[in-house]
Structure formats: structure tokens, C-alpha cells
Amino acid sequence: MAGNTTIEMIRESGNYQDAIINHSVEDPGQSWNCITVGAYTEKEVISDPAMADTYKSLVHAGSISPFSSSSISWDKKWPIKPEVMLEGGNLLREVANPDHYGLKQ
After folding, report:
1. pLDDT the model gives residue 31
2. Segment 33-52 mean pLDDT
3. For residue 94, what are the β-bridge partners?
4. What is Dmax (Cα atoms) for the chain?
5. CA distance 65 to 69
6. For residue range 10-41, what is the model confidence (pLDDT) as tens digits?
7. Closest among 32, 91, 103 to 64, alpha carbons compared
8. pLDDT score at 1
9. In 3D, which of 11, 29, 32, 10 has the Cα closest to residue 21?
10. Given this model, what pLDDT does residue 14 score?
11. pLDDT digits 0-9 by tens, 58-92
């Protein structure tokens, strides 16, 4: 599985893209003989109108999920991971304080 990027990793990296790049696919997902599943998200719309003024989705629909990981930092001789992408959710952040993440969507 290409996942397990945490909210703490996103905070430490400063943005979700760096967190995904810096947190590469872990064992056993790095192996040549297994299929690795990563995550994208279609969850962008906040369904609760009361929350829509306070929170904003971190990534747009169709983007890699902030909770996924990748093999971008690997040598080119290694396989490209993940091979399969499934819905993995999104992350909400406060509009007034964009550095504050908290709610999984």
C-alpha cells in the first residue's frame, strides 16, 4: 500500500506535495513483485453548509490524496509505485488559518 502519510508529516513538510514525495512507499510495497495501491480523491465538496464557511478542501477532486505516498524520489531503475489508485479521502483546513489541518473528508 502506498499510503500512511499523516497530518503531522504534512505539517512538518509545509505542504502535502512535499509530504507525499518525502514519505515514499514503504515495505512491502516497494517490491517488484507486488501491486501497490495509492490514493486519489474525488471528495472536494463539503456537504455540511455550516462547515463550508470555516473549512476548505486541501486538494481538488481528481488529485492525489494527501494521505498517499509515492516513489517519485526513487532511482529511475526502480518500479513506478503505486500502480493502482483508489479513492482515499481528502483533508480539510481552516479558511482563517490555512496552516491548521484537522478534519479528514
Report:
1. 87
2. 91
3. 55
4. 49
5. 9
6. 888 888 999 998 888 888 888 889 999 999 99
7. 91
8. 58
9. 10
10. 84
11. 999 999 999 999 888 888 888 888 899 999 999 99
Please check whether residue 75 is in contact with residue 24, taking contact to mean a CB–CB distance below 8 angstroms.
no
Sheet holding 91-94, edge to edge: 55-57, 91-94, 101-104
Distance CA 67, CA 87 (A): 11
The C-alpha cell at 89 is: 479521502
Rounded Cα distance between 7 and 101, Å, is 7
Q: C-alpha angle 37/34/72, rounded to 5°? A: 55
SS3 of residue 17 by DSSP: helix
Q: Do residues 23 and 4 make contact, with C-beta atoms less than 8 angstroms apart?
A: yes
Cell matching residue 44:
472536494
Q: Which residue is listed with cell 483546513?
A: 93
